[in-house]
Amino acid sequence: MRMKPQALLYPAPKGLYCEKGNFYIDPVQPVERALITHGHSDHARAGHGRVLATRETLDIMRIRYGDGFCDESNVARLGETIAINGVRVCFHPAGHVLGSAQISVEAGGTRIVVSGDYKRRPDATCMAFEPVACDVFITEATFGLPVFHHPDDKGEIARLLASLKQFPERAHVVGAYALGKAQRVIALLRQQGYDEPIHIHGALAKLCEYYQSQGIDLGELRPATLEREARQDFAGSIVLGPPSAFADRWARRFADPVAVFASGWMLIRQRAKQRGVELPLVISDHCDWAELTGTIRDIAPAEVWVTHGREEALVRWCELQGIPARPLHLVGYDDEGE
Amino acid sequence: MKAFAELLGRLVLTPQRNAKIRLLADYFRSAPDPSRGYALAAIAGTLSLNTVKPALIRDLLLERMDEVLFHYSYDYVGDLAETVSLAWEPREGVVPEDIPLGEVVERLQKAGRSEVRSLVRDMLDRLDTAGRFAFLKLVTGGLRIGVSARLAKQALADMGSKDIGEIETLWHGLSPPYLPLFLWLSGEAEMPLLTTPAVFHSVMLATPIGEGDLEGLDPAAFAAEWKWDGIRVQLANIGGVRRLYSRSGDEISGAFPEIIEAADIAGVIDGELLVGGTMRTNRATATFGDLQQRLNRKTVTRKLLEDYPAFIRGYDILFSGERDMRPEPFHARREALSILVDAASAQHFDLSPLVPFSTWEELDRLRSDPPDPVIEGIMLKRLDSPYLAGRMKGPWFKWKRAPFNIDAVLMYAQRGHGKRSSYYSDFTFGVWTESEGGTALVPVGKAYFGFTDAELEVLDRYVRDNTVERFGPVRAVRAEPDAGFVVEVAFEGLNRSTRHKSGVAMRFPRIARLRQDKLPREADRLETLQAMIGMKG
Questions:
Q1: Residue A321 clears pLDDT 80, i.e. is over it
Q2: Is the overall model pTM greater than 0.80, yes or no?
Q3: Among A68, A125, A192, A255, which has the minimal tally of Cβ within 10 Å of its Cβ?
Q4: What is the distance in angstroms between the Cα of A246 and the nearest Cα belonging to chain B?
Q5: How many CB atoms are closer than 10 A to CB A109?
Q6: Highest mean pLDDT among A79-93, B93-107, B227-241
Q7: Is A147's CB within 8 Å of B83's CB?
Q8: What was the pLDDT predicted at A229?
Q9: Contact (CB, 8 A) for B32 and B3
Q10: Distance from CA of A334 to the nearest CA of B (A)
């Protein structure tokens, strides 16, 4: 008899747990053995015993938390199956950020794929999502509402470049998450022929450097720091910083800044307004509604489990399609961070 | 539609006036006719369309969408037009088009009642997301983008390097899609000739008296009159066409039918719109608070007409009949005005009296203690000044009575916009009052200017170091009898308000001084403010 999926993998207080393999996936508290999908801090936390993740994810964790982020780290190669206590585990690209992976977990004839965070759009800074056939597909639902239709990212970058032309005397200060989004925005700007130096906040420096060391060309980056001798106000240039820096005194050095924010949330006007964003760029590292539902159709799993985000709407959609689905109600993931 | 949708999107999120003007002017320069003219009309509020009820667009969406999913979506987004524009799934095989705004408007104007539903559905299918949003805002009749007609006119002036006065003079004689206006602004045609002469002419404005302005000026060269606290208006009656305009050129005839009816004055006059009784009927002028009952209304009830009768207190004259009086000196214009006012209805017109004086010191004393509570200061007009559109320094000055001041305690702060987005620069302040739980602070106003940059640094630091609670973007700061921040707030007047918990609403409050020397317990009490209601600054 085939193993019941909910016996293979189930939500426990510390995260999604595989009892047979005795490991957790993206646990939110320190555990003995963790499998990590990608380097965002709500998924990849420090303090576990043994960590299995892609080489890039391990590098990113080391950059963020230091060498002692775990007791023992092991590299998972994409597409290579490993056995852990009789459970077959395999990592597949997820297209979310550099190093991001889905994790397939298989035992007793049942295969579950944990997508982690993923997207389907082309992204020059990471490998594309690969659909993996499975019995249960665990999908994220960050943008799991029918209102989310992310526009083409080239068009969004073109809006930023148009504004730069229209307001050449103002600094365009772009909020973007430090891992993934910032590098993608820079890469997109370069793809569209923008070759001026781009200024970056200190919090982005190490990760940008790491992306460049992995062969991702980000062009000339300069620190957005203020030299006492050479005061400059960054008029007419693009400055990237983490979103939190905007409320900081850091933001004061810029000439009459245009507040820009690159995030999937920027689709909702009120969101942009609340944050004081003047130029919202809808650029997301997650799937929009059409991609979430399209992926479920592509993979055609027997069952769908939905986690962090707007679970109820995606579960409802699955019901309407006759696909058994349920919300996982995992806690500890930042479903707003993007 | 794409360019118009992008323009709307940017305008909503752009706080600075100059940046808005640039966005508008760039759009007007690059968009084709007649789209730009309809865009202008939509923004300035002169576009008339068959509007569509929100229920219709909701129904259209539900034709294609599960109701449960719709509720999740609407609940999350909060705005129906936005929800529909985002969640709309176009018919299979339809590729979004950039339909010109002009075509959209013209199709809507031509459509019969029974065709509207299918027209809206078709438009939603063919437009892209941003286009759908702009379209839905247009057909539901509420752009709400924080752009006044005046700002749009300023953008037109910038586009064609013209004076805004010229645009305002033309404005009411033109209609959407404003083809002759744009031809003129882009230098392809002469200034359009108007067929309706009862148009608005830009008003002459005064500059405030600054430090040292009066030294070197001869009191004998000026006339003084009271500055009345109503709204500045222009009344035109030319060739039987009667119009009443606000000082920004918005037509408000509909809200003041009694004035229009009594306007037997041939020409164009400038004056203050007030309520209450004229001096000629020996009845008191009512306060600005009373006048507010009549403002921002499209129509007016009989009761309002009886309780708050409106009249015009004449200041100046631009045309006497057909004759252009604007080049004449002030004293000659006043003479002509007084003859017209004398002949007009005593209930609806009087003449703003001159204030005799011989020295600036004497005038200063009169200014600080005016004879009527509805006076907010003194106007000084050069006797030889012609009537010039706009605000220039020299011919006319305004000398306001000193504003009210109170000491209040900082209660909440919010971050500013643009240049100030990293500063806590919007402040809510309160005064002490007795409540059930003892003495407590009650908010009485909000101010975001008045302080210097250096003072802002101090306020910002206080807010960051003394936050006790956060509500979204708002921070509550420490405000106790012995620990808190006292600010001196200046304001122009005080009205009763049912909308504010304190029951009072300040006019033009600003932070005049930081009072770090004071403890919050020394700040003012609500009773002090209540006693000020109706008093004038």
A1: yes
A2: no
A3: A68
A4: 6
A5: 9
A6: A79-93
A7: yes
A8: 46
A9: no
A10: 17
